[in-house]
Amino acid sequence: MPGAQRRPGPFRVGLTGGIASGKSLVAGLFADLGVPVVDTDAIAREVVAPGEPALAEIRAQFGDAVFDATGELDRRALRHRVFADPAERRALERLLHPRIRERTLAAMAAAEGPYLIVVVPLLVESGFDRLVDRVLVVDCSEAQQLARLRKRDAESTAQARRMLASQASRERRLAIADDVIDNSGSIAETRAQVTALHRKYLELADRKG
Q1: With bands split at pLDDT 50, 70 and 90, how would you rate the model's confidence at 2?
Q2: N or C: lower Cβ tally within 10 Å for the chain?
């Protein structure tokens, strides 16, 4: 990306995109090619697992209403609450983001291979783009995002729109992209784009090395 600094270790590709744009699909296709993938969504689930300090802090901040009968975090209830109130969403981010960032950086440092993929949904908003060598945006129309989100999470249209509005705009993401995958078509079409970028990233990683 323009102005990116040379960094030690594997070439780093930051993968981002709007909610329900297909980031997990694309990350999985890179993983199928043997590329190490660090997924901040997976790390976010780890930091709120039973026994993690963040879980007690979430209970103190949001109360028992965001926990199920077994004492585990009710992600859907929490999601509905924080997307309905920007102040509560920021409070949750203050609790979780430092922990997620710390574990993400550790996983990146431990990764081996010519290059790695780091999946960061809020890459633009968090400034994480400064920690990678290249930015890859998974893109599709907002209408497709809404349809996929409603199907995947059984959300109402209003809730789905609130979730989309909480992220950087499509235009803002595309403005910082070094590469774009159009995920509006078939999986085969997306796979072909991933394969082409894989070859490109191997070449870039070789030059960096």
Answers
A1: very low
A2: C
Paired sense of beta strands 179-182 and 134-139, if any: parallel
- β-partners of residue 37 are 117
* Helices 53-62, 75-84: inter-axial angle, 10-degree rounding: 50
Amino acid in position 92: L
59 found inside a domain: yes
pLDDT at residue 55 above 60?
A: yes
What pLDDT is stored for residue 8 in this prediction?
59
| C-alpha closest to that of 20 among 197, 193, 166 | 166
Full strand arrangement of the beta sheet holding 37-39: 37-39, 115-119, 11-17, 134-139, 179-182
Element (H, E) at 179: strand 179-182
pTM of the model: 0.87
Domains identified in the chain, total number: 1
Domain presence at residue 28: yes
What pLDDT does residue 4 have?
Answer: 44
Distance CA 133, CA 30 (A): 17
Residue 191 included in any domain: yes
The CATH number linked to 47 is 3.40.50.300
